[in-house]
Write a structure and sequence with these properties.
Blueprint lengths: L1 E5 L3 E6 L6 E8 L6 E5 L4 E4 L5 E3 L5 E3 L4 E2 L3 H9 L5 E5 L12 H10 L1 E7 L1 E5 L3 E5 L2 E6 L5 E7 L7 E7 L2 H8 L5 E3 H9 L12 E4 L2 E2 L10 H14 L5 E3 L1 E5 L3 H13 L4 E5 L2 H8 L4
Parallel strand pairs: 4-9, 11-19, 14-20, 16-17
Antiparallel strand pairs: 1-10, 2-3, 3-9, 4-5, 6-7, 7-8, 11-21, 12-13, 13-20, 14-15, 17-18
Helix pairs in contact: 1-2, 1-5, 5-6
The structure holds zinc ion.
Length: about 290
């Protein structure tokens, strides 16, 4: 099985969630062993999507360096990882990835439009060899060895509408598109004013965020799935874990996880060389992993 990139350059435009300004997004092919590389075209600065470049995880996952940053990369990264794309250049003319409809389906559509090109080099995946866990009180994220990558997510909110939701996702591109990609980001009405006061969330609206007030959803169209909230957390987790640079073969379990815990988990995994193997998918080895890329 070989590495892939996009077959051609595609462009999109949307507003940033936090600043509310229009941002152009371009997805471009990249050669083998390059990984996912972000490029700020307005500042002529690039950085690779990897845990060491993550600079903030409070409201979204932000990567950057001392010259520039890009916020809210997780939904775009999630789609790229679900499509199994190994190498891609993401060009943005601003400091956020566009929020689109608050899910990753627009990015999936852009990737469909771009198409896939196979490269010469064999694909590499990151196979988890031992349990790695990060905890914060009763909240945790954990990854364990497996041959059937799954994401098992539980959220618990002190809110009558959301309450406790649980979802077990079996990783494949097909399942991702059907079950996860359309799940939107969400927020609580009571937090909207706080964010606005911090000059954040200025691009947020009912067009790109599910807004919950007590026991009702304010969006006139309602929810896309009864458990859209936990599905979106899975979308986020896939994006956050993709910072490892490879498709991850492990069982990921989260209880009330966050971008912050996911980031700490990626660092913990990379810190311990005995926790994972980078497996090159030469022909004879590819078979057992192929199903996930279908
Ligand atoms: Zn999200």
């Amino acid at each position: 099985m070989r590495q892939i990139t996009v077959a051609r350059t595609v462009k999109g435009v949307g507003i940033g969630l936090h600043k509310g300004e229009p941002i152009e997004l371009c997805l471009e092919p990249l050669e083998a062993n390059s990984g996912v590389v972000f490029y700020r075209s307005d500042l002529n600065v690039s950085f690779k999507a990897e845990p060491s470049n993550v600079i903030n995880t409070k409201l979204a996952t932000v990567i950057g360096n001392d010259k520039a940053y890009i916020s809210t990369i997780e939904h775009l990264m999630s789609a790229i990882n679900a499509y199994g794309i190994d190498n891609i250049r993401i060009v943005l003319n601003g400091n956020e990835a566009p929020v689109m409809d608050g899910s990753s389906i627009s990015f999936c559509m852009m990737l469909d439009e771009a198409g896939i090109r196979e490269l010469e080099e064999p694909k590499k995946i990151l196979v988890i060899k031992k349990v790695v866990e990060v905890r914060d009180g009763d909240k945790f994220v954990r990854i364990t060895p497996t041959k059937e990558p799954r994401i098992n997510y539980t959220i618990k909110f002190d809110n009558a509408l959301i309450g406790e939701q649980h979802y077990n996702f079996e990783f494949s591109k097909k399942n991702y598109i059907e079950e996860i990609a359309r799940a939107r980001t969400f927020g609580f009405l009571k937090d909207v004013e706080t964010l606005r006061a911090m000059k954040l969330g200025l691009g947020g609206s009912l067009e790109n965020t599910i807004v919950v007030d007590e026991n009702k959803v304010l969006n006139p169209e309602g929810l896309r799935f009864r458990d859209e909230f936990v599905r979106h957390k899975i979308l986020d987790a896939i994006g956050d874990l993709s910072l490892l640079g490879y498709r991850v073969f492990g069982d990921y379990i989260s209880y009330a996880g966050s971008h912050h815990l996911n980031h700490l988990l990626t660092k913990e995994i990379l810190k311990d060389k005995s926790a994972y193997d980078l497996v090159s998918l030469e022909r004879q080895k590819a078979h057992e992993y192929e199903r996930v890329f279908a």
